[in-house]
Design goal:
Number of helices: 9
Number of strands: 33
Number of domains: 3
Structural class: alpha+beta
């Protein structure tokens, strides 16, 4: 915390050391022992009334004198550019005044015997203080603002925040409570600009002691904090319905504890760095149990201590067969217009992407009569029974679609995952190191389908950045967000992302017109984001007319086929 520079009381004698300019040309009425030249009234050898003193080094004072002392209103120009305009008492700044020092600092307010004292305002290099002073220091109630936008409002003592107050840092975080020599110590509260909240103990501005932290998403940590981190005994209540009671280290489950997941499973035992680690028992929602020794979230030994096969290794053994089976199941095209689909869930750490990809696959099959379908899924629990969403698998799937479909057919591709500012789609399977999918690489993988009309929907943050690489006259591209905006809804407990729900669960249930469905979804997403205080994601579309026409022909053909196979009223009556 910045302290004010000590200012000695200013008397007539101290002004000798000052410097300035502008001495009048008229002769002096008196010459002072220190060489100063006085112009004004002299009574019984003392300076009296209005007058001016100029010193040999150029400093000067003009104002009123009484019995040889500066007294009343006056103006002083001193050393190094100092300037004071205001009241004097017995030769010192005293009363209301304004002082500008030679270093750029300015004080305006009350003085007492040459010192800042009482109500005033001080500013220097972007620092501004408004409040009460005593002996040149912040003292009492005031507000201090720094050049970086941070501030403190509350009680001060000897130039430092001392007592009750509110501190806001340059990032908009707000700390309230009892301050001691500029540091928040004891009970207090915290609020982030995103809406995170903390109430509890502090030590040297950090969470310390018993407290409660709630994130803007609704996750809550209650218990012991140490040097800013949640560590020790406590509880965690997730917005998804999960609950943990036990020991923590640096915000993660660590030590003995009990975790109830949103899916109804319960693990009780040892944790390390947030994972099941050590001896424990997992009870699943269906009533089954898995006991033994765990490592990084996987059970490696059973309750008798026997080593268990690694699910990752078993899953990798089945992956080739899973993909071959999925590709072999694609039926060949017929002379009619057919719809083929591919859905991909990229991030295996969160279930929302798998749920959404599976919903879209079912919707395209049931409502839009997709003839052949492939799903590529990354998920922590499905390595052994779902073909992985990797760049290699995606490329092979596109090649198979190109071989099985005909030029009269349409391909519907849905990709859902996290997205990056550099326009890469996340491909993440826990315990594997998969390469993400850049927009340029996706364009390369799509080359086998260059002759097919395609509908490509990408539900991810920054998805609009994929459009320039993918758009052509045969590819309709829908993106869940602008190239420089995030999209919302990708949390573990959700069945859909915001855009996925708006387009597939809502809009495409109302209309089968792709462009109209996009507009409905865009409006629904904007309304929801505004209601929740989020920056608008602004979904994007590239919609070439030939693809829209092809889609309408497909839907008309499907409608005609449905009518031709529907039973007549007479047939129905005969039954």
């Amino acid at each position: 915390m910045r302290r004010l520079v000590y200012l000695a009381p200013l008397s007539l004698a101290l002004l000798v050391a000052a410097c300035g300019d502008g001495e009048p040309l008229s002769p002096a009425n008196a010459t002072l022992p220190d060489g100063g030249r006085y112009r004004g009234e002299v009574v019984d050898g003392l300076l009296q009334g209005n007058g001016r003193v100029d010193y040999r080094n150029g400093s000067w004072f003009v104002g009123t004198f009484k019995d040889g002392q500066l007294q009343g209103a006056g103006e002083w120009h001193g050393a190094n550019g100092e300037h004071y305009l205001g009241e004097f008492q017995q030769g010192a700044f005293d009363g209301q005044g304004r002082l500008r020092d030679g270093n750029g600092g300015t004080y305006e307010g009350e003085f007492e015997l040459g010192r800042f004292s009482g109500e005033g305002r001080f500013s220097h290099d972007g620092l501004v203080y408004r409040g009460t002073f005593q002996n040149n220091l912040f003292e009492g109630l005031g507000t201090l603002e720094w050049a970086d936008g941070s501030s403190f409002k509350g009680q001060f003592s000897k130039g430092q925040p001392q007592g009750q107050g509110v501190r806001s840092d340059e990032y908009g975080n707000q700390f309230s409570g009892q301050f001691d020599q500029g540091q928040l110590n004891g009970p207090g509260s915290f609020k982030s600009p995103d809406g995170d909240l903390y109430s509890g103990g502090f030590r040297d501005n950090q969470f310390h002691g018993q407290g409660r932290y709630q994130s803007a998403d609704g996750d809550v940590w209650s218990g012991a904090f140490v040097d800013g981190a949640f560590s020790g005994d406590g509880t965690y209540d997730g917005a998804d319905g999960s609950h943990y009671l036990g020991q923590f280290s640096d915000w993660r489950y660590h030590g003995q504890g009990r975790l109830t997941q949103a899916d109804g499973s319960v693990y009780q035992g040892q944790f390390a760095a947030g994972d099941y680690s050590g001896k424990g028992t997992l009870s699943l929602a269906d009533g089954s149990q898995q006991s033994g020794i765990w490592q990084r979230g996987q059970r490696v030994r059973d309750e008798q201590g026997h080593a268990l096969p690694d699910p990752l290794e078993l899953g990798l053994l089945t992956q080739g067969r899973l993909l071959d089976t999925a590709l072999a199941a694609l039926p060949a095209s017929t002379p009619a217009i057919e719809l083929y689909s591919l859905s991909l869930a990229g991030d295996g750490k969160q279930s929302v992407f798998m749920r959404e990809a599976d919903y879209v696959t079912d919707l395209l099959g049931e409502r839009f009569a997709a003839r052949g379908q492939i799903t590529l899924i990354n998920h922590r629990d499905h390595l052994a029974d779902r073909p992985l969403a990797t760049r290699e698998n995606l490329g092979r799937a596109f090649q198979a679609l190109a071989e099985r479909s005909g030029p009269e057919d349409l391909i519907f591709i849905y990709l859902t995952s996290h997205g990056s500012r550099s326009h890469e789609l996340s491909l993440d399977q826990p315990r594997l190191q998969l390469a993400d999918l850049p927009a340029s690489e996706l364009a390369t993988l799509l080359r086998p389908l260059h002759a097919r009309d395609k509908v490509l929907v990408i539900s991810a943050c920054y998805a609009g950045g994929f459009i320039p690489k993918l758009k052509d006259d045969k590819t309709l591209v829908i993106a869940a967000a602008r190239a420089d905006r995030v999209s919302f809804g990708c949390s573990e407990e959700n069945d859909f992302t915001y855009f996925g729900r708006a387009l597939f669960a809502d809009a495409l249930q109302q209309t089968d017109d792709l462009q109209r469905a996009f507009e409905l979804a865009k409006a629904a997403v904007a309304k929801r984001e505004q209601a929740e205080g989020f920056e608008a994601s602004e979904p994007q579309i590239w919609a070439p007319k030939p693809v829209l026409v092809h889609w309408r022909k497909l839907r008309e053909q499907q409608a005609n086929a449905a009518l031709s196979t529907a039973p007549t009223d007479k047939t129905t009556a005969n039954h």
